[in-house]
Amino acid sequence: MSTPLSTTASAEHVRGLVENEIDPLRYGGQSDDPKESPGIVLSYIPKGARVLDVGCGTGSITRLIRDLRDARIIGLEPNADRAQAARESGLEIINDVFTRETVAGLPPFDVVVFADVLEHLVDPAAALEVACTLLAPGGAIVASVPNVAHWTVRYELLCGRFDYRDLGIMDATHLRWFTAGNLQRLFRSCGLHVERYAGSAGLWMNEYRDRRPFTWFHPERREQFVLAGVRRWPGLFACQHVVRAALPP
Question: Please, which of 64, 99, 110, 177 could form a disulfide with 148 given CB 3.0 to 4.6 Å?
């Protein structure tokens, strides 16, 4: 079969899409804020679960899962620099691509996590199918992906722009683009049922600090407005879609 995580776009594959070089270690420092994607991912993982974090990067979310969910966790990361950074924080890391062969000797997991990973893959369905073979009875896959239908992207398209960036929804290393609808179709195509869904607020985005009318609001009022938008119109205001999915019993 193909090797899902060996066919990703990396920082070396974005020439001409962004002006500056992309730092492969740029993502990190995530918190357990329940409004944002990492915090939602945490809420979908049972205490004491055995977890595989696929494409764990420098281990920022992996550490949160280990420390706050008391999880027995293994990270898998194909990039050597990111894998080493994760190891230096005391995590158990496999530095390899995610294939049936590389995970064949691993025990079953209660949860397999794809935190901002599927959008980087040529064949995300193949990765999900491999993950399904690793699930213990009653196990689940937890995934987060950026929302390409976010209002910021829609606004840029109205202005005739589709500009890549070094991080965020328009990260230049993204190969796949998701809405809530096609994300659910992806999971269904692999025989998975989406049990839970939430949209993240994305209050860290520069647009909420630099763009009118948000600059007119007090930060607390701005947060209330965005959270209300995420609840009422997640397809428009959710920065990321976060799901927990499982195989039928």
Answer: 177
* SS3 label, residue 57: coil
Distance between first and last Cα of the chain: 26
Kindly tell me the burial class for residue 30, based on how many C-beta atoms sit within 10 Å of its own C-beta (0-12, 13-18, 19 or more): buried
Which pLDDT score is estimated for 211? 79
31-68 pLDDT, tens digit per residue, is 899 999 999 999 999 999 999 999 999 999 999 999 99
Domains of the chain in start order, with CATH, are 4-246 (3.40.50.150)
Q: Quick one: average pLDDT of 11-17?
A: 67
Q: For the chain, what is the radius of gyration of the CA atoms?
A: 18
CA distance 46 to 241: 20
Helices (H), strands (E): how many in the chain? 9, 7
At 154-171, the pLDDT tens digits run: 999 999 999 998 888 998
Cα 5 vs. chain centroid, distance in angstroms? 14
